[in-house]
Amino acid sequence: MGFFSTFNETRTFRMLVIPAFGFVVTQTMAVFNDFDPTVQDLMRKISIQEDHDSFDPMKGGARYNFALSNILNYRDKELWGMWVARWAIWHLVFLSATSFKLSILPKHMSWLPMLHCACMTGVMYSGFRQWPDRDTYLTYRDNFLTAHASFAIVVFMQNILETVMVWWPEKRTRTWIGCGTWGGLVALILVSKIPSVQTALEEERTGVFVPFGLIHDSVHNTFPKELLTQTAVLEVFEYTNFLLHFLVVWHRSGVVEKQIKAGTFHPKFVFPWQSLPKLPASGKKKGK
């Protein structure tokens, strides 16, 4: 009963179930866009990329890439019905997480979840690919990529800082999460430089899945192996960054709510120019 009672809690549904649902459904949509043989001719026909079948992120929009950007928006233009469903699902995910945080945090900290929501939608909007034609897309692509990267950096940094300075601000936890995050990232980068790892990734990433295995596609594999390892490292970092943040918010939301009511909530960050609010009378020790 303990497991099911936790599963039925609002925090579980809004911080874990809905995001997991959004991830699985939109990732499945992307896979079908790339591998369903009944729509491949149509996908190539409506494509706005330089080469729909290319594995090169700049030419084909990062085919066979599992970065979060490629599930917020498909790597190429897709059928409008698929796009509407994809954006509706992710707006639901963003609003679910944001409204839950707003229901827990005090009003003077409401800017935090709102900023997170704004930047996440910014990441999604700047990855828009439903352009009318290839020329229009290529005209604005670089500007949109710059905006996309800017929003993403803010979101990644906020995930880390908000996790350890608001939801779990204990010094020991901050140390472990901080060291684990940056140490893990450095380790991933170093591992990605190993030639055997680059070769394995090339074999895995430049193939086409079929029911009984993987067929290597050398025709569209015309870019450096380093590019594959960079995207793989980015994927691991993205998933770890978001998964850790959502899990900590889910795990700590009850504790934070109790601390706020008791007047013992001490976040390490509120606003650059705003001091922490004074504790309510119930949270102060009574004088003699």
Chart the SSEs and their pairings:
Elements lengths: L1 H6 L2 H26 L4 H7 L10 H4 L8 H4 L7 H25 L6 H15 L8 H34 L3 H22 L2 H11 L1 E4 L2 E4 L8 H38 L26
Antiparallel strand pairs: 1-2
Helix pairs in contact: 2-6, 2-11, 6-7, 7-8, 8-11, 9-11, 10-11
Report on the structure:
Helix 2 runs antiparallel to helix 11 (225-262), helix 6 packs antiparallel against helix 7 and helix 8 (134-167) packs across helix 11. The radius of gyration is 22 Å and the shape is globular. By secondary structure, it is mainly alpha-helical. The model is unreliable at 208-216 and 272-288 (pLDDT under 50). It has helices at residues 2-7, 10-35, 40-46, 57-60, 69-72, 80-104, 111-125, 134-167, 171-192, 195-205, 225-262; strands at 207-210, 213-216. It has a two-stranded antiparallel sheet with strand order 1-2.
Give a quick summary of the entry:
The protein is mainly alpha-helical. The protein is built from 11 helices and 2 strands; from the N terminus they run ααααααααααββα.
Task: Looking at this protein, list some descriptive labels.
mainly alpha, 3% strand, disordered C terminus
The best one-word shape is globular
Unreliable segments (pLDDT under 50, ≥5 consecutive)? 208-216, 272-288
Give the amount of beta strand, in percent: under 5%
Strand order of the largest sheet: 1-2
Q: Structural class of the secondary elements?
A: mainly alpha
Radius of gyration: 22 Å
Mean pLDDT: 82
Largest sheet: 2 strands, antiparallel
**Terminal Cα separation, in Å?**
47 Å
Tally the helices. 11
Order of helices and strands: HHHHHHHHHHEEH
The helix fraction, in percent, is 55-70%
Beta strand count: 2
